[in-house]
């Protein structure tokens, strides 16, 4: 599966706090498996009390009612990070004789923390029309909508199994939750993104911007071993323009592949080219968290993280304050998508 939107964050991912709130049925396999961050796994002839075990969501076989209608099964997902959905992946990996022949996806936006009952009465918008599926395959569906959504509903017709659901898009935070506070300007959930990097052989640099602590070295950014002069780098677009006051570099779990030193540069503009040093080359240690104040740093919209010469980071945190321009940017983005 290849799609332009696949590089965008999975807004429904468990690592971002996504959750399957309810499902019509989960007789054979639990609905929560839909959002597992790893690729679906399968061990043949592994039978439990409910039959062959699947790393996915699987419902019972439907039978027609008195009118001859079969109905359909559904799963209700709260996005970990609300935002604009650019594409959806419905993956039927390992479901070969028990996959649904069709699926669709709807989305809605409600404030606060609605219950499944409250979401049932929400105004739902179809973002992926009823579409055919194949067994044991990932199906990529681009979404043409500029609206911000908080929840999606996956429908399968009439029943069967789906291994994974991915909802790729752009985070759109509520500016009321950020304005006037010290926030992590590099947090993916606040709208930050890695735009480019020199190397991502082992894992993607966007992992550094995920919430929480990395549970292992695969949940951060790690490069290949560098065999030539120079160093590796990643360019991060911040949530919006702001002043970074504290930088945290977390090498937890990176015991033999942490960088020797890190440095940080900042710039402003849509396509920054003039970089200003925010933190000079500074030594870091393996398997630990390192915090450095950045006194007197100028306002920036982008930062370039340099790791010398190579290695990885579990997390990068850039705590600071939005500028008035940054607040306006977030407010304009919010207004345009809600």
UniProtKB/TrEMBL annotation:
Q: Which UniProt keywords apply?
A: Hydrolase, Purine metabolism
State which Enzyme Commission number(s) the record gives: 3.5.3.4
Gene Ontology MF term list = allantoicase activity
Leading EC class: hydrolase
Q: Which SUPFAM superfamilies match?
A: Galactose-binding domain-like (SSF49785)
Q: What does the record list as coiled-coil region(s)?
A: none
Where does the Allantoicase domain lie? 17-171, 191-321
User: Pfam families from the xrefs?
Assistant: Allantoicase
Q: Which reaction does it catalyse?
A: allantoate + H2O = (S)-ureidoglycolate + urea
Metabolic or biological pathway: Nitrogen metabolism; (S)-allantoin degradation; (S)-ureidoglycolate from allantoate (aminidohydrolase route): step 1/1
HAMAP family in alphabetical order: Allantoicase
Quote the NCBIfam families the UniProt record gives.
allantoicase (TIGR02961)
Q: Which family does it belong to?
A: Belongs to the allantoicase family.
**Protein name per Swiss-Prot or TrEMBL:** Probable allantoicase
Q: Which organism is it from?
A: Actinomadura parmotrematis
- What is the primary gene name for this protein? alc
């Amino acid at each position: 599966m290849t799609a332009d939107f696949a590089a965008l964050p999975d807004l429904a991912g468990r690592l971002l706090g996504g959750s399957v709130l309810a499902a019509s049925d989960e007789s054979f396999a639990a609905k929560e498996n839909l959002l597992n961050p790893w690729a679906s796994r399968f061990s043949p002839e592994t039978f439990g009390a409910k039959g062959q075990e699947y790393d996915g969501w699987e419902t019972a076989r439907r039978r027609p009612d008195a009118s001859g209608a079969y109905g359909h099964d559904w799963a209700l997902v709260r996005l970990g990070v609300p935002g604009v959905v650019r594409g959806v992946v419905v993956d039927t990996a390992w479901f070969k004789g028990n996959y649904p022949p069709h699926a669709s996806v709807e989305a809605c936006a409600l404030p606060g923390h609605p219950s499944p009952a409250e979401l049932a009465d929400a105004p739902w918008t179809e973002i992926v029309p009823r579409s055919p599926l194949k067994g044991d395959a990932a199906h990529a569906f681009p979404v043409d909508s500029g609206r911000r959504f908080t929840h999606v509903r996956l429908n399968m017709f009439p029943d069967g199994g789906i291994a994974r659901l991915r909802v790729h898009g752009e985070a759109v935070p509520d500016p009321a939750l950020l304005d006037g506070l010290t926030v992590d300007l590099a947090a993916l959930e606040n709208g930050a993104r890695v735009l480019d990097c020199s190397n991502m052989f082992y894992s993607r640099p966007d992992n550094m911007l995920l919430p929480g602590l990395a549970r292992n070295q695969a949940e951060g950014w790690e490069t290949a071993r560098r065999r030539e002069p120079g160093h590796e780098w990643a360019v991060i677009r911040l949530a919006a323009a702001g002043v970074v006051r504290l930088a945290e570099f977390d090498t937890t779990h990176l015991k033999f592949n942490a960088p020797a030193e890190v440095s940080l540069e900042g710039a402003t503009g849509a396509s920054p080219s003039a970089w200003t040093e925010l933190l000079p080359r500074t030594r870091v240690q393996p398997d630990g968290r390192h915090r450095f104040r950045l006194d007197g740093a100028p306002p920036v919209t982008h930062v370039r993280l340099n790791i010398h010469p190579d290695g990885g980071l579990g997390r990068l945190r850039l705590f600071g304050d939005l500028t008035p321009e940054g607040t306006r940017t977030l407010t304009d983005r919010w207004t345009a998508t809600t």
